[in-house]
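Closing statement on the iron/sulfur cluster sub-project.
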Amino acid sequence: MDALPEFRVLSPKTLDDVVAARAAHPDSKPLGGGTDLVVNIRRGIVAPPVLIDMNRVQELHAIKADERGLQIGSSVRLSEVAEHADVVKLYPVVAQAAAHIAGPTHRNMGTVGGNLCLDTRCIFYNQSEWWRDANNHCLKTTGTICHVAPKSRGVCFATFSGDLAPALLTLGAEVDIAGPQSRRTIPLNKLYIGFARQDVPITETQGDGKFYLSLRPGEIVTAVRAKNTPGLRSGYDKIRIRRSIEYPVAGVAVALKREGAKLADLRIAFTGTNPRPVLLDGTQALCGGPLDERVFKGLDALVRDQIMPMKTTFTPGHYRRRVAGVLARRLLTRLFES
Ligand SMILES: Cc1cc2nc3c(=O)[nH]c(=O)nc-3n(C[C@H](O)[C@H](O)[C@H](O)COP(=O)(O)OP(=O)(O)OC[C@H]3O[C@@H](n4cnc5c(N)ncnc54)[C@H](O)[C@@H]3O)c2cc1C
Ligand code: SF4
């Protein structure tokens, strides 16, 4: 086990003080539960000199779920989300996704903000310093090539693996952001920019596994919100290697509406596959008829087109893509027939 390097922890009590502290310490990192960040510090992957503890700011702990909508502050614990009676009842996809994250102790510490802003993962990155050093590091840290795709021309394919984001994407969620320049609200989908394309330069809207969030310097996520859609049935499922405590091989969130025998609305989002959570494009074209082979074949084609088969985890990329497709089919069928 590597020793933790020196760092300072600041604990502001208001949001304005958090923003001021971030501005005063440009190399700082926001600290939620630390269940990912501290692991990465210990491994020498990141070395922020200052951590800004977000947990003392009261307004970031609010959680509200009713017939009109869902609002969750960024410092709300994952266990609170998983067990909140109104979230369980009205937004089951969100409660189920939270309940699938890591193990009980992580969920008691881990926060919604930390989960939404979770670092991307790769077998060549989530390793000790000496292991990475022995492999000459890689693009995501200080190296010059990508070991997953040596011809990637500067692009990193590290995978986004947070479970909450796909669930919230199926609800059309938005995130509130605070920073030194302004406060703003953007669609959650626009927070994630890990498109990993080799034909376009990295910008604020087109990133990869290294530049995966559209947050500007000093910005933090303060809350996530979604409107209620009456009649929506939703759920979350994932496959992981260790069932009790593990990142997803693939995770899927499905939200649908059924009108009589017809599929009237369909939203499907994945995690654990691409450098961003993927809200599948094209699912509306599958609606309007019964849940039949036409829908399943269409779904398979969308998964084939949009889910990446890069080998960034222990499982082969193609296997992950197949798992994603099978999980989506199963969950879609279960929700439609429920
Ligand atoms: C063994 C193990 C298994 C795990 N399994 C899963 C899993 O199955 N699914 C899963 O999703 N995760 C998993 N995790 C990762 C982690 O526990 C969770 O994702 C957790 O929700 C992270 O939240 P946190 O508050 O601890 O984040 P932190 O570690 O505090 O922060 C994570 C990142 O987000 C940034 N950050 C934190 N808060 C904010 C904010 N408000 N605004 C902007 N940036 C912010 C931090 O600077 C850091 O870069 C696992 C971790 C371990 C150790
Ligand atoms: S995908 Fe490539 S560059 Fe990115 S973390 Fe993995 S090995 Fe490194």
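The mean pLDDT is 96. With this model delivered, the sub-project is considered complete and its resources will be redirected to Aim 3.
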